[in-house]
Amino acid sequence: MKKTLLLILILLSLQSCNNADAYMVFSEVPDLTMPDNGLRFKEIENYKNYKIVATHFVTDNSELRYILANKKAFIALSKEQPFPEGSILVNIAWSVKNMSTFKEALEADEIQQIDYSIKDSKQFSQNPGNWGYASFEKRNGNYQSSTGGTARCIACHNNAKETDFKFTTYQKMQ
Ligand code: HEC
Questions:
Q1: Half-sphere exposure of 130 (CA within 13 A, CB side)
Q2: Residue from 149, 124, 146 nearest 135 by CA
Q3: Ligand 1 atom nearest to 90, measured from its CA
């Protein structure tokens, strides 16, 4: 009797592990490296498990942006605290299209690029806020490292100096 109970308990706990695994999504990101600073796409391999902290619509190129944060960046943003070492923010840029089921609404269509920034005071001690930048563009279904270099990222993000070079503020979902 005891043995049966034990077996049931083991099976139940295995089942809950399986459910947890199904919830965690690991993406097979390509092994790409930024030519000018060595940051890899693999650095954000589990970005699908990051939390969405904001969405933006950029009017000059009609792109929808999902901003996601890893745990460290999420805690900092949501509590309005400084970003600690290891914070990562991801920006997924989507083209948009009219929804086929409801023409008056736009929906995310295809990913154009995935950008991220990481706070790393060792590797990026020279960069403002110690942020390193990476950008992977999607063309015909395949990603490639952006060849434009990351100096332009740093230059434009300098406009957000007051907020540690990040434009995003946390959009409370309540
Ligand atoms: C011309 C200005 C400009 C340039 C160049 C630029 N960004 Fe941004 N970036 C923005 C603005 C504005 C936002 C907020 C709007 C949005 O979501 O795109 C942003 C948002 C981001 C975010 C989300 C976190 C945050 O800072 O708000 C990341 C990550 C990011 N950019 C990475 C990059 C990378 C990597 C590059 C270089 C390849 C880059 N950016 C180049 C203006 C710029």
A1: 13
A2: 146
A3: 29
For 91-141, what is each residue's pLDDT tens digit?
999 999 999 999 999 999 999 999 999 999 999 999 999 999 999 999 999
23, amino acid identity: Y
By alpha-carbon position, which residue is closest to atom 11 of ligand 1? Answer: 167
* Token representation of residue 131: 């942020």
Burial 16-55 (b: 16+ CB within 10 A, else e): eeeeeeeeeeeeebeebebeeeebbbebbeebeebbebbe
Tokens representing residue 64 in the block: 């929808």
68 close to 53: Cβ distance less than 8 angstroms: yes
> What distance in Å separates the CA atoms of residue 137 and residue 113, rounded to the nearest whole number?
4
**Measuring from atom 13 of ligand 1, which residue has the nearest CA?**
167
